Amino acid sequence: MLALVFLWHRVLRLKMQDFVVGIALGMGLVAGLDPLLNALKDFRTLKQPVVDLLQMGTYHISVLVWLYFASAREASTSIADVPALLRARKSAVDLAEVIRP
Predict the structure, then answer these.
(1) What is d(CA 63, CA 57) in angstroms, rounded to the nearest whole number?
(2) CB 6 within 8 A of CB 24
């Protein structure tokens, strides 16, 4: 599923937000390691509490990946070009004055 998300992104040449990449990586990590951990639990190669701790660690790491990409998105969107924003607002006001006689 993770590979399909990135291939779809490449084929259509869409800009993917960082938060979406973080969610895809976190879900891919959980979905990729879950069958392996279940196999380790079923074949009893590791004790069940160890496998449960590994599974819990996988979930926590995926949440940390999501939070990292969410904070990266927040940092990138909070840095705004204030002069450009003010020029855009002034242009909108000027345009509104031109449209309304």
Answers:
(1) 10
(2) yes
